[in-house]
Design a protein that fits this description.
single chain, about 180 residues, alpha+beta, eight-stranded antiparallel beta barrel, 9 strands
């Protein structure tokens, strides 16, 4: 199933590059929540309009450490835009993600009641890192506040081996 979604995302990128026209560019910041890491993430993104309806959105999100876990993700999503009700636009999205997760046992436990002296060396050295590729599926809505500034909301499901999660959040973009 993941291979199917990966092929769909690759096809969307191919279609977008064939229909290339000089398009709208914007950059933005995001604030979201990751369901698996159960932490808030901050991000940056760039939107490039390939056509009037298709845009490519690469971005990066860093999730704040919680319970010894920290994570980041780099995404390359394609949005298909549907203008609705004047200044609002909705879009489904599909894309690719590359994510890294780290577990640091030294930061996972709170006060150990004096056992830090006994287990301190072990806890300081116990950590694990994983990185994985995956696929994003989701959607969003964008509302133009002014000719240059937009706000929006987005939710996507990142299908990543062993660490699938939903990331939902708010986005603020500036068109230039």
């Amino acid at each position: 199933m993941k291979k199917f979604f990966l092929c769909v995302a690759a096809s969307l990128f191919a279609v977008a590059s064939v229909n290339a026209q000089r398009g709208e560019k914007s950059a933005g910041v995001s604030l979201g929540y990751g369901s698996e890491i159960k932490s808030i993430g901050i991000g940056a993104r760039f939107n490039y309009g390939i056509t009037d309806r298709i845009r490519v959105t690469p971005g990066f999100t860093y999730f704040f450490p919680k319970d010894g876990f920290s994570a980041w993700e780099t995404n390359a999503d394609v949005h298909y835009l549907f203008p609705v009700a004047g200044k609002a636009t909705v879009y489904p999205l599909a894309g690719l993600t590359f994510t890294g997760w780290k577990f640091d046992a030294g930061n996972a436990f709170g006060d150990l009641g004096g056992l830090e002296d006994v287990f301190g060396d072990y806890l300081d050295n116990a950590s694990s890192d994983i990185t994985r590729f995956g696929v994003n599926l989701g959607g969003g809505i964008q509302y133009r506040l002014t000719g240059k500034l937009s706000i929006g909301a987005e939710a996507k499901y990142s299908l990543v081996s062993e660490i699938d999660q939903v990331v939902a959040g708010a986005v603020l973009t500036y068109k230039f």
